[in-house]
Amino acid sequence: MRHINASSNELCPATVSFLGERAERGTGTAATIPHNGGVDTDPNGDPVPDAPEGDYTGDGVPNFDYVRDRIENRFATATGATELAEGTPEAEQLDQRMAERNRAARERLDEIRRSMEE
Fold it and tell me: Which residues is 56 bridged to in the sheet?
């Protein structure tokens, strides 16, 4: 876990101090942390692929089209899951139980209203 100063995008002094102490003892990996705060390899040592061109600005902020596509994909996934779930016998039983519960609630409410009018 890296502690980065959000305003300057550099490691905070406490983290630099901690990493320096570990490097002096020979137990740290301070020399492997890039000065730019980026990650060059994954935990297996394989290179981390760059973000697809066009999805992010130079500052690392996702562009509007990328965000819109992500939202549309999530909406489509949720809609599909709902449609699949509605066709199951469990969903039909739940719908029947909810309808019965709503009917009982309406009857009870009507009964309370009649008793208040008396």
Answer: 62
